[in-house]
Structures are given as structure tokens and as C-alpha cells.
Design the sequence.
């Protein structure tokens, strides 16, 4: 299983791979990618967003050693967004989970932010599926789900 997360925060899409520890805990890790919206993504921008999501899926890993010190786990997403903490990042962000198993397809599941203590909760009833062969459609579906979560 490969997975990643996509966030929309202040007109910018942030994408990052999810790595799973030997204890089965997911950690957002690896390089974070930012795609700026700038008033709406055209077809090329949607394709770039879709390709960034596929790249993040391809960067997903399993069996990473489980951290003994969580404060030592690097987090590249908040600094990329210009904030100091996940709490500050999440306050203004909507999110979707992206997953793909060996048989495909890619599954996008929107999340609802419940607050700083609860974090995000997935909304399986709004899940959509798409193949990786059409990055423009993947980008469109990600934008649609994130926009709906943001009340756009």
C-alpha cells in the first residue's frame, strides 16, 4: 500500500508521502511538494498537481524504524508553509488522504478537521477513485474534494 496526504492551505496545495513504521504508524515524511493555486489551476496546473500526488505515492515507504523520540522526527510541511508547527498549519488547512495498492486504482478520501486535539477524520462516503494514468483528472478530483471540504 502506498499513501500520501494532500492539504490546501491559503491557496497552496501541499503534498507529502506517508511512511509507515515497523509498528504500523503513519508518518508524513520525505520531501514536501507545494503547488500554488494563483486564482485557480488551469489544465497544466491540474496535471502538475496530479503528477505531484503520483510522485508522493511513489515515495511512500513501509517498515521504517519506529521513532523513539517523536520530537526528533523531521517535519517539512509546516516550514514549507511558513509556519512553525503542525497545529498552526492545520488550523487553516483542508486535507485528503490518497492511497493506492498494487492493483490500483488511486483512492482519494476527504478529511474533516475536528480541532487541534482530534486532528482530521476521514469521510469515506465521499471517497473517489481514479487511475494514475490521467494526472489531470487526478488533480481535478483532488481540487474538487479539497474545495468541498473548505466550503468553496
Sequence:
Amino acid at each position: 500500500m502506498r499513501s500520501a496526504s494532500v492539504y490546501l492551505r491559503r491557496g497552496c496545495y501541499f503534498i507529502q508521502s506517508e511512511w509507515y513504521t515497523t509498528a504500523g504508524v503513519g508518518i508524513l515524511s520525505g520531501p514536501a511538494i507545494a503547488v500554488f493555486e494563483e486564482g485557480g489551476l488551469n489544465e497544466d496546473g491540474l496535471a502538475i498537481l496530479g503528477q505531484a500526488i503520483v510522485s508522493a505515492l511513489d515515495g511512500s515507504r513501509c517498515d521504517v524504524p519506529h521513532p523513539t523520540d517523536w520530537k526528533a522526527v523531521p517535519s517539512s510541511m509546516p516550514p514549507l508553509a511558513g509556519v512553525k508547527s503542525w497545529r498552526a498549519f492545520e488550523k487553516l488547512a483542508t486535507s485528503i488522504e490518497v492511497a493506492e495498492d498494487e492493483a490500483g486504482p488511486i483512492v482519494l478520501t476527504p478529511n474533516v478537521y475536528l480541532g487541534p486535539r482530534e486532528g482530521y477524520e476521514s469521510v469515506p462516503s465521499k471517497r473517489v477513485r481514479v487511475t494514475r494514468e490521467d494526472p489531470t483528472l487526478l488533480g481535478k478530483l483532488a481540487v474538487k474534494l479539497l474545495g468541498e471540504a473548505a466550503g468553496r
User: Anything to note?
Assistant: The first strand starts at residue 2 and ends at 9. The radius of gyration is 15 Å. The chain has a mean pLDDT of 87. Residues 43-58 form the longest helix (16 residues).
